[in-house]
Amino acid sequence: MDHAATTYTLPEVLEAMLPYFSEHFGNPSSLYSIAEVSRRAVEEARGKVAAAIGAEPEEIYFTAGGTESDNWAIKGTAFARRKSGNHIITSAIEHHAVLHACEYLEKQGFSVTYLPVDGDGRVNPADVEEAITDKTILISVMHANNEIGTIQPIAEIGRIARSHRIPFHTDAVQTIGAIGIDVDAMNIDMLSLSAHKFYGPKGVGALYIRKGVRVDSLLHGGGQEKRRRAGTENVPGIVGLGAAIEIATADIDAYAGRLAAMRDRLCRGILETIPHTRLNGHPTERLPGNLNISLEFVEGESILLLLNAHGIAGSTGSACSMGSLEPSHVLRAIGLPHEIAHGSLRLTLGHVNTEEDVNYVLEVLPKVIERLRSISPLSAGESKTGQRD
Ligand SMILES: *Cc1c(COP(=O)(O)O)cnc(C)c1O
User: Fold this and answer.
1) What is the protein's quaternary organization (predicted)?
2) Measured from the CA of 66, which atom of ligand 1 is nearest?
3) Residue 10 Cα, ligand 1 centroid: separation in angstroms?
């Protein structure tokens, strides 16, 4: 139950990739027949990615994953537009690939506004409008958050960006295959995606760049990707990305509906059987497979270790890193008090999960929490919030 971290590669995706490691190994830039096969495969995948998000094939650029796409969109735009201004608007709950790229730019003389979010993790579009100055050169707000699953009002933020003629980037790494995307209807100028989050291979992704949007290159070298992203194409990975995105976006509603129903049953079961718990993230505007719960008086990593001993893979936003119990920037941004943020548990459902899995977690988790609380120094005394649930 950690599909937000990564997914396995579907057998049919792997099948599609395999010939491009061996039989069809040509370099797409070469001028002979075996290279032509690789070239055609890359262009076919480009068409599939474009079709999945309502873009044109010429607007899709292959990268090494979500991190590169985010870095390219942010730094590439900043460097291309530095003569027009030095101000960037983003949110406090972005993935580190966006946040750390922005922090790097601050060291280079750019100024960044990190918009706050409300208690459910939503950015208020009015805050975006208010943050815009005549120096603003980029707005970047993620489509859905990887920790708490909250979906942002992207179309509205995009509309505001467009009305000020400011390019709008969104990190949609978590939403491909979970929510339908149309870059025109949602007013998106740049969009990051990554294959391993939707049952494709790791190390390959794409950046959508709307025609006419200026972005400097980060990688200089050969003339690949219309001279905008140098380096011999990861042909098997790109073929896998194309196959995976076609499958992931084919029947989103049925898949999302199935996941959301299991997720809701899991959520109700946990909140009803375990005292001192709360749901993090938006109650309805959230990723179908995402559940993020805070459990008071326990520590996230301890929950994970015991769940792992029962064969359950989850994740926490409250890693006890370097001896300090600092909860994640996302849990802090939604205003969770420290003692509640300590024990967060993220379970993200996907393809392989069944109703039996949900039953199993509902059987194991209450026992795990009871055991941890019985030995926890945190549970001595009353809840600081004074609430019993
Ligand atoms: C996983 C993830 C990334 C990073 O993608 P990689 O392909 O792993 O580099 C970026 N943003 C979000 C929201 C993610 O979930």
Assistant:
1) Homodimer.
2) 5
3) 19
Q: Which atom of ligand 1 is nearest to the CA of 70?
A: 10
pTM of the predicted protein model: 0.95
CB count, 10 Å around CB of 311?
8
CA distance 275 to 296: 9
Tokens of 197: 């989050």
CA-nearest residue for atom 3, ligand 1, is 66
Ligand 1 centroid, distance to 67 Cα (angstroms): 6
**Atom in ligand 1 nearest the alpha carbon of residue 203:** 7
| CB of 94 shorter than 6 A to ligand 1 | no
Measuring CA to CA, which residue among 199, 330, 178 is closest to residue 260?
A: 178
Cα 380 to middle of ligand 1, angstroms: 38
**Ligand 1 site, residue 67, Cβ cutoff 6 A:** yes
Rounded CA separation 263/358 (Å): 8
- Please give the distance, rounded to the nearest whole angstrom, from the Cα atom of residue 373 to the centre of ligand 1: 33
Determine whether the shortest distance from the Cβ of 147 to ligand 1 is under 6 A.
Answer: no
Give the Cα separation of 64 and 212 in Å (integer).
23
Q: Sort strands 344-348 and 290-295 into parallel, antiparallel or unpaired.
A: antiparallel
205 CB near ligand 1 (under 6 Å): yes
| Cα–Cα distance, 241 to 198 (Å, whole number) | 9
Enclosing H/E stretch for 160: helix 154-163
At a CB cut-off of 8 Å and minimum separation 6, what does 183 contact?
Answer: 53, 54, 55, 189, 191, 208, 210
DSSP-derived letter for residue 365 is H
Which domains are present in the chain? 11-248 (3.40.640.10), 252-374 (3.90.1150.10)
Question: Using CA atoms, how far apart are residues 262 and 376, in angstroms rounded to an integer?
Answer: 30
Could you read off the pLDDT of 1-22 as tens digits, one per residue?
999 999 999 999 999 999 999 9
Match 């969009």 to its residue by tokens: 191
Residue 52 has pLDDT above 90, yes or no: yes
Q: Is the pLDDT of residue 272 over 60?
A: yes
**Tens of pLDDT, residues 180-233:** 999 999 999 999 999 999 999 999 999 999 999 999 999 999 999 999 999 999
Neighbours of 346 (CB within 10 A): 26
Q: How far is the CA of 196 from the centre of ligand 1 (A)?
A: 9
279 Cβ contact partners less than 8 Å away, ≥ 6 residues apart: 267, 271, 291, 292, 293
